[in-house]
Amino acid sequence: MIKKALMLFLFSSVLLTACSESKLMNFIGESENWQVNYEVNVLDKDSESTNLTIKYIGGKPIPKRIKYVVEGVSGKSEGEDSLNNGVFEIGGHSCSGCAVTQENEEIKATISWNDKSDSLILKKQ
Hints:
This protein has one helix at 2-21; strands at residues 23-30, 34-44, 47-56, 65-72, 75-82, 87-96, 107-113, 116-124. By secondary structure, the chain is of the alpha+beta class. A hairpin with a 2-residue loop joins β4 (65-72) and β5 (75-82).
């Protein structure tokens, strides 16, 4: 009986600890041409997953391709890709054993297109 109670207590403690460390944060920024949302799900002290949405809000014509760099203290994501109706989305990036994004962190996003470039500071919302 005592073993069952102890096992239940240990299992509950592990489950509650794992749930309490997960934290979802949205970092948002906007310029004259772009709106950026960087969603970070901190899973524990050294792992997280991210989603990035970049939306073109400037005038016509909508750029066909962009280069992007999103960087903070904990790391950097960059690439070049096409827009789908003025929107670029990428998700499912994760790391384990890494430095994770902090609540008070300011994240810088730089978007380049058609020989132009915008830099934005993303802040936690």
